Description:
Elements: E1 3-7, H1 18-27, E2 32-35, H2 44-49, E3 56-67, E4 70-77, H3 84-110, H4 117-124, H5 131-140, H6 171-180, E5 184-187, H7 201-209, E6 214-218, H8 220-223, H9 227-240, E7 243-246, H10 266-275, E8 282-283
Parallel strand pairs: 1-2, 2-3, 5-6, 6-7
Antiparallel strand pairs: 3-4, 3-8, 4-5
Helix pairs in contact: 4-5
Amino acid sequence: MRIDLHTHSTASDGTDTPAELVRNAAAAGLDVVALTDHDTTRGYAEAIDALPAGLTLVTGAELSCRLDGVGLHMLAYLFDPEEPELARERELVRDDRVPRAQAMVGKLQELGVPVTWEQVARIAGDGSVGRPHVAEALVELGVVPTVSDAFTPEWLADGGRAYAGKHELDPFDAIRLVKAAGGVTVFAHPAAVKRGQVVPEAAIARLAAAGLDGIEVAHPEHAGLAPETRARLRGLAADLGLLATGSSDYHGSRKTCVLGEFTTDPEIYGEITRRATGAFPVPGAGGHSAA
């Protein structure tokens, strides 16, 4: 089985619609794909309606969190999307995304970049606006060559010159809320140093003690790390009793990663589904919705 547990659609900051995403996942030879848009479940219905036969969909979300001043992302799988407390927190984060993006546009303008809110809003479309949309505006203007190159201290990385904060969950609260909603939590790309400061291992141990289920070990932004760093991350998962997942973090054409670039072991996937009680994987029956 080929299992990719971290992808994004136009419901947040990907370029594939949810329907296109599941069709592209099937075409890429995946057996299981997780839809984990940022702080939203809005893409679920379209993805399920279009789900091809032979592909299983794991519903999820990537929750925006912050711990001791350091931003981190928490992947939440197979939770009840109607659970009110978790739904309320996701809404608070989403509501803060527009003023946050507008603040970043203002900072860029102060730095002499001729970006406009109208440009960023056009790029975001119906998606949940975020830093990647601002980054794409910088690419359009020729300020940086790629979206990834915008995530540096010079521009949009945490603490960068044009960075602006937003409402974010305490990760301990996120673990509690997801667990109460019957879901499973995995710390996304914990060693992605290019994005800025990362959470120390001692903090990951605290999260594990609080009920964190896993960490995303195989990820495109970990691939460039030293082999001993990647080995240490896998060893940390083993030491803490955490599930070690692998994923592409696919965003369509917005990033260079491809579906199935990194995958999760079937046994790990099986354990995630065993722990979840809020929702269950959806087997494809042959989707039919249009993109």
